[in-house]
């Protein structure tokens, strides 16, 4: 019982293959590589653009690559999540190909996780490309780089952060069986939590709430004061850089400040200290939050997919 | 032997619409069983319940002796299913799709390498197997849909409107394939709204309308049970009411429908009553111009069944 039968693995791999062929033939993978290439090129070229404007030469920076978090920010993760997963389940319903597929002797669970695994592989390949391009490009532009051995940690964090968004897109797509609604709905959630949520959270002085919402999270600082301190984000989008920083500086303490908008001069919006916590706790919390979302949303999607009737 | 398909009071509702209503169906092993009904009769809905795409709202069903449950892959491994107007992944090539589906059936590589070209050949797609399905015509997709239903050498094949979208040659080819399957002992259950198709290839038929099974049995049984009797068609010159009243007196006559000079005399038996009829007409002063004996075809039965249903439906309203 405990051993998974080889036949099941073969069927799982058949589904993975089926899905990967979709990703490759539908040029989804190519599209992702192009987007990755464009985003990375943009962050690599940043220094040159600044230097062209200011006239100062590009300074060597040995931490450029490791600090750049693969050149991806929150919206980057979100974008890749959408492209990776928006039609994985819903597209199958939209095209009607779900009908012959579900008639095959493969359990719906195997189909669901096979498809998800294929999405993971597609994303992994894209991010690997991104990582290598970033490492080479960064070295060429900013000189020899340090801590390149930590890049896989960045990569793992980026995958994890993206999968939180993937679980959201997947859930909406599975509920509505529409790729468009999945993409637009997730975009709405992204704007809601990251833009409006951040503004409201900060305005109300309840920034900590953002720690528990997928995305950029709350912001704290390491060091004497916010003005000279190193900013640390607590969100699920920042798992990668936080992990890297933890390896490099295990003793970092992150401090959060109250924000005053009224009556303060520019540069002095940070008020009294609210609380502090070690970076390890920040990471632990964000990983736990990411896992909860991931497991809950993937779990609900799986449950819905298992029960879905194919009426159309 | 347990029937290949057996349903007991199988029911499916879409909201307030009862698409399949207490359907009792029995498909014997080794038969070609037609599932005949007009558009919207509930054929596809029934089939989708059988293959696990829809959940019944009531009743039960068994396939090859096993109760259909929800998501039972093992059951599906013995069944081939061709959906109505199958939608197949357009980005794959014909042979790729068969290979991938073959993997999902757990067919070994050696076997797939033999099976896929054989099936491609069988359904007449040879030469096009390396083209993307997106470039296939409707009929070609239909053919590939049939091929994928036969991949696993199923014991039972369920085909939802297999000849939809096929040209006349394609229809004949598909019928030949189905007959060939029957020759190999494979049970075929196929839905159709084309009566002559069912009449040509099926050994058995179940007629369904508005989710209700109207009749079921061998083609001959259905024809005999429902026709029961013959009809005589006569063309009469010098017609008078006396002709009708004379005919009515004949014990064999059930009813008479008059259309100008033509009379359609439905009989109570399956006897040739032409001489009695012509005598009765002559006795009333009529002259018989032509006289024909007619047995009701399945087509008539089908239409009559549907018509009867329409009448009762109107009656209720
Ligand atoms: N997804 C759905 N939602 C609501 N009603 C549906 C749905 N699918 C089918 N129906 C209804 O159920 C009834 C049976 O439909 P079904 O598709 O089973 O008929 P059919 O016999 O296969 O017809 P056809 O010959 O046109 O394929 C019809 O009245 C149809 O309108
Ligand atoms: Mg139908």
Write structural notes for this entry.
The complex is a heterodimer of chains A (312) and B (317). Chain A is mainly alpha-helical and 312 residues long. Chain A has one domain. Helix content of chain A is 64%, strand content 8%. Chain A has eleven helices and four strands, in the order H-H-H-H-H-H-H-H-H-E-E-H-E-E-H. Chain A has a two-stranded antiparallel ribbon. In chain A, strands 3-4 form a two-stranded antiparallel ribbon. In chain A, a hairpin with a 7-residue loop joins strand 1 (219-222) and strand 2. In chain A, helix 4 packs antiparallel against helix 7 (108-142). Chain A starts with 5 loop residues before the first helix and ends in a 5-residue tail after the last helix. In chain B, strand 4 and strand 5 (66-67) form a beta hairpin. Chain B has helices spanning 43-50, 73-76, 94-104, 109-122, 138-149, 168-183, 195-201, 219-227, 241-249, 274-283, 298-316, and strands spanning 5-14, 17-27, 32-36, 58-63, 66-67, 79-82, 156-160, 187-192, 204-209, 212-218, 230-237, 253-259, 262-267, 287-295. Chain B is elongated, with a radius of gyration of 24 Å. In chain B, helix 3 crosses helix 4 (109-122) and helix 9 crosses helix 10. In chain B, the strands form three sheets. In chain B, strands 6-7-8-3-9-10 form a six-stranded mixed β-sheet, with helices on both faces. Chain B has a four-stranded antiparallel β-sheet with strand order 2-1-4-5, with helices on one face. Chain B folds into two domains: 5-222, Rossmann fold (3-Layer(aba) Sandwich), CATH 3.40.50.300; 228-294, Alpha-Beta Plaits. Chain B contains eleven helices and 14 strands. With 317 residues, chain B is of the alpha/beta class. Chains A and B meet through helix 1 and helix 6 of A and helix 2 and helix 3 of B. The complex binds adenosine-5'-triphosphate and magnesium ion. Residues 43-44, 84, 160-161 of chain B line the site of magnesium ion (MG).
């Amino acid at each position: 019982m405990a051993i998974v039968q080889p036949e099941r693995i073969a069927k799982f791999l058949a589904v993975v293959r089926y899905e990967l062929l979709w990703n490759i033939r539908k040029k989804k993978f190519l599209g992702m590589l192009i987007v990755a290439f464009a985003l990375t090129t943009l962050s690599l070229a940043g220094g040159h653009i600044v230097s062209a404007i200011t006239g100062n030469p590009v300074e060597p920076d040995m931490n450029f690559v490791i600090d750049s978090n693969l050149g991806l920010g929150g919206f980057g993760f979100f974008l890749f999540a959408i492209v990776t997963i928006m039609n994985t389940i819903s597209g199958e319903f939209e095209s009607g190909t779900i009908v012959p597929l579900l008639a095959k002797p493969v359990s719906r669970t195997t189909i669901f996780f096979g498809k998800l695994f294929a999405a993971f592989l597609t994303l992994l390949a894209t991010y690997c490309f991104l990582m290598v391009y970033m490492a080479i490009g960064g070295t060429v532009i900013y000189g020899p780089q340090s801590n390149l051995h930590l890049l896989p940690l960045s990569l793992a964090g980026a995958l994890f952060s993206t999968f939180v968004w993937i679980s959201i897109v997947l859930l909406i797509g599975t509920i509505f069986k529409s790729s468009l609604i999945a993409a637009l709905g997730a975009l709405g959630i992204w704007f809601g939590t990251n833009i409006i949520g951040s503004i409201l959270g900060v305005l109300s002085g309840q920034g900590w709430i953002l720690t528990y919402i997928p995305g950029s999270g709350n912001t704290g600082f390491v060091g004497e004061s916010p003005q000279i301190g190193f900013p640390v984000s607590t969100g699920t989008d920042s798992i990668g850089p936080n992990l890297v920083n933890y390896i490099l500086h295990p003793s970092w303490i992150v401090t959060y400040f109250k924000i005053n908008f009224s009556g303060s001069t520019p540069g002095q919006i940070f008020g009294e200290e609210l609380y502090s916590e070690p970076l390890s706790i920040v990471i632990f919390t964000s990983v736990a939050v990411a896992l909860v979302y991931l497991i809950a949303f993937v779990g609900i999607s799986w449950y819905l997919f298992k029960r879905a009737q194919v009426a159309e | 032997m347990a029937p290949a398909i057996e349903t007991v009071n199988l029911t499916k509702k879409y909201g307030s619409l009862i698409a399949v209503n207490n359907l009792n169906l029995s498909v014997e092993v080794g038969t070609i069983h037609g599932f005949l009904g007009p558009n919207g009769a509930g054929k596809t809905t029934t089939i989708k319940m059988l293959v696990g795409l829809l959940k019944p709202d009531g009743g039960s069903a068994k396939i090859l002796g096993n109760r259909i449950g929800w998501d039972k892959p093992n059951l599906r491994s013995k069944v081939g299913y061709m959906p109505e107007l199958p939608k197949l992944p357009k980005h794959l090539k014909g042979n790729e799709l068969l290979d991938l589906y073959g993997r999902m059936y757990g067919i070994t590589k050696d076997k797939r390498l033999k099976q896929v070209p054989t099936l491609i050949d069988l359904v007449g797609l040879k030469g096009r197997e390396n083209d993307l399905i997106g470039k296939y015509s409707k009929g070609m997709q239909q053919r590939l849909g049939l091929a994928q239903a036969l991949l696993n050498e199923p014991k039972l094949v369920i085909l939802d409107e297999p000849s939809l979208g096929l040209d006349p040659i394609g229809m004949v080819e598909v019928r030949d394939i189905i007959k060939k399957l029957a020759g190999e002992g494979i049970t075929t259950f196929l839905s159709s709204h084309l009566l002559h198709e069912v009449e040509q290839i099926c050994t058995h038929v179940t007629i369904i309308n508005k989710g209700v099974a109207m009749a079921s049995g061998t083609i001959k049984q259905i024809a005999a049970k429902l026709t029961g009797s013959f009809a005589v068609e006569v063309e009469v010159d010098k017609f008078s009411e006396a002709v009708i009243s004379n005919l009515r007196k004949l014990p064999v006559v059930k009813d008479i429908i008059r259309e100008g000079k033509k009379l359609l005399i439905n009989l109570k038996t399956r006897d040739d009553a032409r001489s009695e009829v012509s005598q009765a007409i002559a006795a009333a002063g009529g002259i018989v111009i032509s006289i024909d004996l007619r047995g009701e075809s399945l087509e008539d039965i089908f239409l009559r069944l549907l018509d009867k249903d329409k009448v009762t439906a109107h009656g209720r309203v």
